[in-house]
Structures are given as C-alpha cells and as structure tokens.
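#onboarding

Welcome to the new folks! Below is a worked example of what a typical request in this channel looks like: someone posts a single protein sequence, and someone else replies with the predicted structure as tokens. Don't worry about understanding the tokens yet, we'll cover that in week two.

Example request:
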Amino acid sequence: MADPKGFLTTGREVAETRPVGERVKDWNEVYVPGSLLPIISKQAGRCMDCGIPFCHNGCPLGNLIPEWNDYAYREDWSAASERLHATNNFPEFTGRLCPAPCESACVLGINQPAVTIKNVEVSIIDKAWGNGDVTPQPPERLSGKTVAVIGSGPAGLAAAQQLTRAGHTVAVYERADRIGGLLRYGIPEFKMEKSHINRRIEQMRAEGTKFRTETEIGRDIDAAKLRRRYDAVVIAAGATVSRDLPVPGRELNGVHFAMEYLPLANKVQEGDLTVSPITAEGKHVVVIGGGDTGADCVGTAHRQGALSVTQLEIMPRPGEDRNANQPWPTFPMLYKVTSAHEEGGERVYSVSTTHFEGDEDGNVQALHLVEVEFKDGKPAQKPGTERSIPAQLVTLAMGFTGTDQANGLVQQFGLELDERGNVARDADYATNVDGVFVAGDAGRGQSLIVWAIAEGRSAARGVDRFLTGASALPAPIRPTDRALTV
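Example response:
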C-alpha cells in the first residue's frame, strides 16, 4: 500500500488549468504544463489498495491501478510505466480523453472524492516519455503471417501494435491523410495535442507496423481483394455515420455535422489550411448535443471568436450528485463542466429543435426550439414554450449511428450486421467472413476510448489465435461485455 493514511490526510487535487482569457487565444492543451508533478505522488498515496479494487471493474482495460498508484507514490516512475503499459498501449491518450469510469468505481468515492486516477495515469506516462522509458518493442522473430487493419483510431492502433509485437507483418489502412482517426481529426488540439499521436506512430513504425494513408477500403481498394492479399483483416473503421436532424431548414448553409466542423479546425492546426472553411468567427453558434463532441464544438467556437455559443440538450439537466438509482460503483450521469464550458456559453436542457430559419440567400439565421418533458421515456413538447435563438452556425453533435456502409466495405466483404447495425462478431471478434475480424465502434457501436483500446487488444488475441492456433496476447474484454452501469 502507498500511504496507509493518505486517504485520511490528503484531499483531492486535480490538474491546474490555464486562465480562460489566456487559453482561448491559442490551441494548446488547457492544463498548466508540469502542474501535476509537485502534487501527484501525494494524490497517488490516497489510493487505499482495496482488497477488491473496483476501479479494475470500472476500467475495461483492467488497468492495474493500485499497483501503479503505489509506484507513483514512491516516485518509481519506470516501474509505474511498466505496470501502466501492461494493460494499456496508449495511456497518454486515455489519461487525457477518457471520462474515467475507474474513478466512479473507486472505493474511496463511496464517501469522499475519488482518487485522481486519470491525473496519476497521465503523469506516469508523461514522465516515462521524458525519461526515455518508452521505447520500441519489435518482435524477436516474424511469423510470416500478414494482417491488414482498416482504421487508425485507438482500436485499430491497439490491434496493430499487439499483432506487430506478436511477430506478424501488419499494415494499417487509413482513409484520411494522417494516422489517428478521430484522435487526429475529431479531438481538438486543446484536449490533446497531436504530438502525442505522432510519437506513438513513430514507436510503432520502429516496431515494424506499416501505415497506408489516403486509402479507403471499399473505394480505393476492393475489400474482397484486400482479404485475398492478407492472411487476416481487422476492421476498426469506427462508427462514423453521424446522427442527423431531419427538421425543416436542415438544408440551409451553416448547418453542419460536428465531424464536418471539427476536422477542419484541426487541419488549420496541422498547417494544411490558413482559415477553416467553416468558422465560428463573428457568429452566433448553436451546438445541438450535450455530450463530449458537443463540448469539443463549444471549445472550438470559443477559439475561433464566436459572438455567442449555446449548447442544446434534449435530456433534463443531470444532478451534481449520484441519483439513488445510480449507486456506486456504477458510472453515474452527473452534471459535468468541461474546460470548454468553463470558457463561456449557455447550456440549455430539455429542449428540442423544431426547425431552422434562413435568410434570402439560404444561410441559417435562427433556430426554433420548444421545451420538452419526458413521458413514458419519450420527449413530449410543452405547448406555449416555443421560441427562437439567433444561429449563423449550427453543429449537430448528437452521436453516431453505425459504421459507414456507403463506401462499399460492408457489402464487398459480405459482412453480417447485428440488430443495432454494427458488424456482427463472435466471441473471438471474428465476423461471418473467414479471417475477417472487427474491433472498436464498428462492432460495439459508439463508445469510449478505453473500450476501443480494450477491444483492439482483445481482437488481436483472436487474430493471433486464428493465424497460429494459440495466443499469449491478453484479451481484457469479451464482445458482449458492457460498461458498469445500471
């Protein structure tokens, strides 16, 4: 155990953020660089090394949280990094982007603020990179087997790294011009600077993984031909079909999916564009959708110089404390204030958009909404609550409905889909097509980064066993496993 009295003597402290007035003027990460290291060892010492560490159950990766908390408390950063990497290929991603279901399951969280698990994790990996503890791990020998991975998000990268280290020759195919999937073009720079992705890609290249960008399977390469070229294929193409809002005025200029808006802002940061073709500068911005993608749109609009930002959510505002029907250790639905929300804007709950209003040139100018209340689980409009708000830019951030079928990948492979429209798979993540596997959101549906990495690792074991007859690779979850919720 780290500090036997740590949870009694030390209060919870989290990473310090830069002043709002400073950070909205740039695209750097919102946290003060180096602010965690002076406090993180004591924070790790709050871990109680529980007899039954429920944080393990909260995390689909099965992270060895009490172990690396103990090492961080003792400032044995090399050992902490080794334990961290034992279950997680990319802790610098999860430490910045995961909503930390492990903290919701922390035993200390029953009656005190939980251990800052996420902050400890990111401190360990940042220290490991700084100390040179993160090095390539090429295989000792090659198997002679080849694997194609379709998609370079967290699931695809995790599967590729595991299979490369197992000795297989792996090529990752990405339809965008850079590797990273939504990590690259969906996550704004202020949440995770892309240098973190770049150095992981270099590590993977040094291990032997090959990368093929600007190559879309289904359009640029026929999926059936790809299958014949490789001994196995892993589909990790994500659930990239955005949920639409079919209301009058949807066709107006200025109404965009979040995944049309956010990638362009990231391309500006990559140096590809000087100014985004879709910008919030000088506009009243409305973001429809109250989740993390919506918050990313809010933060991006602030940095682009929006006149105002309003975020709409059809659900009621969550409480700030656990509801009785969401007991520990489940993941509760709580009112969350992200760094983007700290920067300004208005959040409106229990409303539904009825239609958009445009000007004579076909540009959106206003959004009409109505308050709703839920009856038998369905939203019902409240008469007399209709109103309009100014809107010259609207982003739709209402989630995703499944993997892309328009590019022909599903049809060309001949894949079966489940009742939710995801690619169906068995207990080994294998599809109905021999030698074709699926991992991440393409098979699970829209989910969290930790589930994506866990699926990539688990699918890699299924592929390895298919190719060699046995596998020593870990498989943290089954395809049927679900989050620790009620």
